[in-house]
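Collaboration report, partner site 2.

Our partner group contributed sequences for two proteins of shared interest, and the home lab folded both. The records are reproduced in the order in which they were received, starting with the first partner submission.
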Amino acid sequence: MTEVENVIVHKAAEFEGYTVLFSIHGQRFQFLIADGKPLFPLNVLHTFTEKDVCGQCGKKVLQVPVGQQVCRALQHRKKELLAYMEEHFLWGPAGHI
């Protein structure tokens, strides 16, 4: 998961949990995480600003909001992605965000 860049974490407004925006090789994604003990990974969505082929799953993706669909490759790795996000971004010196 070292290719993950530009991470922005927000408390989700629509549900109890977090919205994590990040990019991999310049392509943007959104990771939805339900709050709880432990945290629960929900979906990993494409959030491309223009039409492109996803470098992770190979799917042709339209720009947001139409193209905001699940990335199947990252969806299969969501537990690994959650562990990486928890270690590097969701837990700080003061504890859980």
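Second partner submission, folded after the first:
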Amino acid sequence: MFATRFAPSPTGRLHKGHAFSALTTWTAAKATGGRFILRIEDIDPTRCKSEFETAISEDLAWLGLDWEMPVRRQSDHLADYAAVIEDLNQRGLLYRCFRTRKEILDAIGDAPHGAMEAARPGPHSPQEEARLLDQGRAFAWRLSLDRARGPGRGSVEQPQLHRRRPRPER
């Protein structure tokens, strides 16, 4: 069965781009007899607000959209994501990336072989990783598609799976 999803973050009110995306995916699901899933991206507790989630539902209903119940919330599945990350890590397919998005974007202009090299810089050296861990720096677990594909299969992009922020000191 064909399924679509609309996945807003409840960090503010919906805008025209959200409405267009929701209408497009809802229409595609309805046209094929498929499913339209509302998934709330509520994993940023500092920015997500319940009043915005309520407003999202109200706005979508005002547009005449209906969706599969219950609403799927990303925060309800953190243990599932952690289990997958652990499995991939045990299989040697992940690496820690301490680079911020800004650092990666800034490096694009400096890459001698082009933007793709800068956009997927790969793992830090073991010494650099140990130093950054000792400093308590935040990191993202990134999937090494090179490792997942196996030797001799060519280099490919390195998508981010999960961002780990340092815990605030108490």
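Feedback sent to the partner group on the second submission included the following. The chain has a mean pLDDT of 86. DSSP finds seven helices and six strands in the chain.
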